[in-house]
């Protein structure tokens, strides 16, 4: 069961009308290392992982959905009032031709999201290392996005999201450590 | 320059067509030095924690935009 | 809705709630890998208390934060009223 909470995790502000950034932000919306991929990856891996780390996967996945909503908010605010000409100038002409101002799970180049972006190996160490790598890749993507804008308000939200990737990676690394340390525990069948 | 940043210089070939970049950088965030967070780390005030994206200063990684203008 | 969601108080209370809830997310993830840290659990419980109090005040003024029976509604049905999080 999930309960939706009618508020953002972080106060997202966009300081200037820059439709160009909306397109690039889609990398974190429906891209390979984006928030949707992260949320779905962890939420699915949790069914075949030792109980000790199910909580971490469930909670980080849930937080990723809050981040997905923050990215959607940024894209929404940047495109809501944009004219067809402005969208075209920002490279979003093909998007307008398909769906007007609607958002879609696709990356910055317009490639639709695919489940091939995520993995479930069923081996807890392999899966957690994939998750750590995913967090570092998302951190890097946030850096490149921050580099592409001088809007300090937009940068502010992106910096928050970048830091969250760093924290998530620590929690996944700790999860690996917890599984390594199982060696000294008694086996009870 | 912040202490989490590392610098490297890409190889310059004799036939490179463009003016060479002087150096490139990458970030080594604090999570690379912690395998397991110790208890009782000092905390930010709660409003500061939200602004920084973490409750713990020692896990905070600053990043500044390299933006130099569009096109 | 009694109070106007565009007034400064709405944004102030919302941010106070975001501040408390963020600390709770951080402590929750930390406790997932540090289940024995009693001091962190105490802080978590204390902030949960403060959060519940503030969320109740906020909901009294601006309508429910959660649906499906997690908050009371006045008439007409408040849940589906604007603004939604991405609109504010």
Automatic annotation (TrEMBL), chain A:
Stretches assigned to coiled coil: none
InterPro entries according to UniProt: Ferritin-like, Ferritin-like_SF, Mn_catalase, Mn_catalase_dom
Pfam short name (any one): Mn_catalase
Top-rank lineage group of the source organism: Bacteria
Annotated SUPFAM superfamilies: Ferritin-like
Family: Belongs to the manganese catalase family.
Protein name: Manganese catalase family protein
Source organism: Paenibacillus tritici
From TrEMBL, chain B:
Highest taxon of source: Bacteria
InterPro entries: Spore_coat_CotJA
Pfam entry (one): CotJA
Protein name, entry field: Spore coat associated protein CotJA
Automatic annotation (TrEMBL), chain C:
InterPro entries: CotJB_dom (IPR024207), Spore_coat_assembly_CotJB (IPR016571)
Record key words, sorted: Capsid protein, Virion
Domain Protein CotJB: 12-87
UniProt-listed Pfam families: CotJB
Name of the molecule in the record: Spore coat protein JB
Upper classification of the organism: Bacteria, Bacillati, Bacillota, Bacilli, Bacillales
């Amino acid at each position: 069961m999930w309960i939706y909470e009618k508020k953002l995790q972080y106060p997202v502000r966009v300081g200037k009308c820059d439709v160009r950034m909306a397109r690039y932000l889609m990398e974190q919306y429906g891209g390979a290392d984006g928030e949707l991929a992260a949320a779905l990856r962890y939420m699915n891996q949790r069914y075949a992982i030792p109980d000790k780390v199910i909580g971490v996967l469930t909670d980080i996945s849930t937080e990723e959905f809050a981040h997905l909503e923050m990215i959607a908010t940024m894209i929404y605010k940047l495109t809501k009032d944009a004219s067809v000409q402005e969208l075209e100038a920002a490279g979003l002409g093909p998007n307008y031709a398909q769906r007007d101002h609607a958002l879609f799970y696709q990356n910055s180049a317009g490639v639709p999201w695919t489940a091939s972006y995520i993995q479930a190996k069923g081996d807890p160490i392999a899966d957690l290392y994939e998750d750590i790598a995913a967090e570092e890749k998302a951190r890097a993507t946030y850096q490149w996005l921050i580099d592409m804008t001088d809007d300090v308000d937009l940068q502010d939200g992106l910096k928050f999201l970048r830091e969250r990737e760093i924290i998530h990676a620590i929690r996944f690394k700790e999860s690996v450590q917890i599984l390594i340390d199982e060696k000294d525990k008694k086996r009870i069948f | 320059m912040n202490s989490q940043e590392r610098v490297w210089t890409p190889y310059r070939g004799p036939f490179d067509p463009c003016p060479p970049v002087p150096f490139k950088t990458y970030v080594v965030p604090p999570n690379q030095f912690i395998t397991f967070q110790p208890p009782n780390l000092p905390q930010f005030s709660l409003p500061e924690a939200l602004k920084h994206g973490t409750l713990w200063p020692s896990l905070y990684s600053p990043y500044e935009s390299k933006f130099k203008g569009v096109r | 809705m009694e109070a106007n969601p565009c007034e400064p108080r709405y944004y102030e209370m919302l941010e106070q709630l975001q501040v408390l809830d963020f600390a709770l997310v951080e402590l929750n993830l930390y406790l997932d890998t540090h289940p024995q840290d009693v001091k962190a659990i105490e802080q978590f419980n204390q902030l949960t208390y403060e959060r519940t109090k503030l969320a109740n005040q906020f909901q009294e003024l601006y309508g429910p934060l959660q649906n499906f029976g997690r908050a009371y509604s006045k008439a007409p049905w408040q849940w589906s009223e604007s603004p939604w999080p991405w609109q504010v």
